[in-house]
């Protein structure tokens, strides 16, 4: 039965028919390790004079590299039951792990059976049992067996991690790299995985929390290792092209992609209304529009019409001086998305990556950053990820003052935001915020597709509004001659803000703009605007092709510069619950034409920000060098005065 357009149901009876085989594997089997080495046996005390014999090494040609290790009995149920000392009864956590492993094995074997039925493998297995498989098909047979082994092994690890996620605690275990990944056939792949899991449990599972953490950590490592192995040309197309749904477990299997539960995060922040964000007109306007853009995401197609038509903001940089309202902007945007999701019944996930995610252990900071990215990218939720004070969190490459953890985080963010494997579905957005964006690595900063200048209150009216807002209502001071929050009317304020970018604001960019305009006249053609862009690049070599992409993306955002009606958010049937193609057509009808003024304004907005960052960065570096030279001169003067005569 088809669940959605791209999901097939993995029937419950197809899973349960494999329970007997799964029980047998958990109760016990013998396995000779091929790749990994087992735990070292404890030293046995011997009487003096009794020698020890060396391990037998075959001298037969062709057998010298074959493992001579003895088969080991794997009894996972006994191993799990022994994680709680001498208690003869199985605890709730132990039972959950046992049932989770059995269920994961049943699902994996059912997927393996479906893989065989969808490929010639099923027929080849029968022919091989009968001894009628031709020699010309041996290579194909081996390749398909390898594909089935990879699919079954990955599904087992994926389902285990998914089913036991609710048992996780704050305890973590580093199980090391998984080695016993066997691909001869599906059964051997599972035996190798269960044997190594038994080894990890014998080493790390000293109590129940560590036992659960060991199983989960092992499953994550096994998934990574098998997914990497599957990139080497194995015949796994029948597995990656079919997406399966296990309704009883709310589990969706999509090839070599980890399954996650669509859980909302518990938000404890104090939400802000748009009128409570004083000033910051363009930033506020774009944040409000982005919140509604996210809601256009289609969970069945797993794509947002805005991401397909253009104009979706996947990453943005919010910069401004301390106290100008960056945190308030985050509270406003998160609050709007949360309310929209509550109304539509969607799952909303907000997560912030902070300085406490930087770890002293090598590789751990990168793992934390990757987990943060994956949680927000989860295509089954509407996600909003923020990185506050990113200049403190992500280190600049080549900066000796940046820790190894900060360098790891920079590498992960660069790959996630604009890497070779980046896929923008339109279900989430990432905001990077900083008081000192000039300290952010240049390449990482340029991966922010949109720039939100958070400059706070600017006009007299803004300051009256923010004073009245923060004073509250528990006073008797009259307001005076002022219309409260009239200056915060977004459309009027935004129009004025965009028009202010008809000319650049930074002195360095103004010189370039005036020089080019005097030479070629008004910038009213693609050729003239390209000439202006080249002149900017000559003034600032960091103005590269990625900058042009960000500018054109911003122009497409302006083409989508329309307000999705509030009724569409309040009554989901009007828009949110419509089929993807119908939503795309409704958005297409609202698209605005792109004008020369839009392009010039966006070039100036983006280039102004880059010149601002560069000027600040250079000025900071110059001031630091001046201080260093001053200290050197003072040190030299004191040394000359006090040196021995």
TrEMBL record:
<protein>
    <submittedName>
        <fullName>AAA family ATPase</fullName>
    </submittedName>
</protein>
<dbReference type="GO" id="GO:0005524">
    <property type="term" value="F:ATP binding"/>
</dbReference>
<dbReference type="InterPro" id="IPR027417">
    <property type="entry name" value="P-loop_NTPase"/>
</dbReference>
<dbReference type="GO" id="GO:0016887">
    <property type="term" value="F:ATP hydrolysis activity"/>
</dbReference>
<dbReference type="InterPro" id="IPR003959">
    <property type="entry name" value="ATPase_AAA_core"/>
</dbReference>
<dbReference type="Pfam" id="PF00004">
    <property type="entry name" value="AAA"/>
</dbReference>
<feature type="domain" description="ATPase AAA-type core">
    <location>
        <begin position="320"/>
        <end position="453"/>
    </location>
</feature>
